[in-house]
Design brief:
The protein has two helices and five strands; from the N terminus they run αβββββα. The protein is an alpha+beta fold. The radius of gyration is 25 Å and the shape is elongated.
Amino acid sequence: MSRSNTRSQQRAVIIGFLVFASLPVIFGRAALHSHDVATALRDHGRTATATVTGSEFPYRGKDYLLVSFTTGDGRRISTRLYDFYTYDRPDVGEKVVVRYALEDPKDYIQDARQSPDFMDALVWGTCTALTGVITIAIMVAAWRTRLRAGRAAPYAAGR
């Protein structure tokens, strides 16, 4: 193999490793965000009656409702309500009860019949741990391979 091919392969491996090594950071941020949303809804959630203004299908395979409501402090919010589970989808103009977080009612909202969902945080946390362990295993394997190659080099040069 030519020297330039070897260098290109080494660069590709390093770039691939760096991309893969960034996954625990990305997954970790998603886990923290999911946990923050669930905690905010659990600890500081308020309920309000919202009016259904529409519905759309699908968003990542999920349906969602478009709703508008007024918070306890008088802010008018129009947003998407994901994870609205019911067999009888409410029609436009019908009322639904929502739970929202005080600090971000537009993004931290859910169907009030549900408890806050910590499962997303668990899934993202598991992905963080798995990609972190795999990244460390790849680093150790590369380090050991490099050590073995360094020990074999004097013998190969002597032949």
